[in-house]
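Justification of resources, computational component.

The compute hours requested in this renewal are based largely on the per-chain cost of generating structure records like the one below. Each record pairs the submitted sequence with a full structure-token output. That output is archived, and it is also reused by downstream analysis tasks.
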Amino acid sequence: PSAQNEKFHTELSFRPYESVLKIDRKFSGTERALVHQRRCLVNGDANELKLRVILDRFSAEVFINDGEQVMSAVMFTEQEANGISFFADEPNASNNLKKLYKLGGIYGEKK
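The structure output for this chain reads:
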């Protein structure tokens, strides 16, 4: 998943042959010199990866295998970049997308 528009995006990817989950903010819109990629070696069976991703305006929280591991990232993508997309190289992987929720804001913002 990624916050995106035509110009900016942040990417979350998984390489099962290495058991590595990566958050890449390289194209998120930041001009600061900071670490753009974070990687996590995922414990357990790479064929049974379970992710819960929570996105808000400026951050992503990724809970791996029911919270066994967690990754966080701050994103600097423009607010107009409100798209999100999911894709997989494995044909059956996208069949496992279970639920997508839109959460309300803490300041009484409309859903």
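The radius of gyration is 14 Å. DSSP finds no helices and six strands in the chain.
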